[in-house]
Amino acid sequence: MKHRFAVLLALGSCLAVTASAQVWRCTDAAGKTVYADAPCPSGQSARLVESARTPAQVEADARAAEAARARLEREQAASRAAEAERRAAEAAPMPPDRSQSTECRAAKKELDFVSSIRTLPDEEKRARMNAQIAAMNAACGTQMDLLPDPPPPPLPRRHAQPMPVGPIAITHCDALYCYDVRGRRYPRAEVGPVPR
Predict the structure, then answer these.
(1) Cα 6–chain centre separation
(2) 17 to 4, 39, 57, 65: CA distances (angstroms)
(3) Given 39, 61, 70, 145, which residue has the most CB atoms within 10 angstroms?
(4) Does the keyword Signal apply (predicted)?
């Protein structure tokens, strides 16, 4: 593709140089073909390949050839830049593999040790494990998750007083509760209207 474009560019340049000349294709009796800017000698087959061109056509061809040359130079420059970038990327040193470092191996060993301790309380063991996981992540370049905090203990459930069977003898009420003769209190909504 690039070679064909270069050939077209060269032909465009030649046409611009030849200005308004005609091009004839002349073939003699032996089959030899020659191109000339004048009509072929008698006895040779002749064919007009390019007719005379006006100065405006020649100028348009020259502009097209210049645009093609500039486009080819831009493509070649982009290709050279891409190749240089690819070579630079290949030559760039790889970052060291921290997973094989002495610090990483020591951090993993310490994490194994801390995880094997059975005499620590759960909260202290989780704190030490998380500290060691963070140290191992820093030394090895890993992204191991920390141990989560345990869920909070459930809130104690309040047991509602069972409603006594039979009529309730209410002695007095305040804004929120009513009280019976035994001192048990009841939310006012459960009691209903307070007798006067």
Answers:
(1) 38
(2) 20, 19, 12, 11
(3) 61
(4) yes
pTM reported for the whole predicted model: 0.35
Q: What tens digit of pLDDT does each residue of 2-17 get?
A: 555 554 545 555 544 4
Per-residue model confidence as pLDDT tens digits over 51-86: 777 888 889 989 999 999 999 999 999 999 999 988
- Helices 122-140 and 102-116, packing angle to 10 deg: 170
Indicate whether 126 pLDDT > 60: yes
Amino acid identity, position 65: A
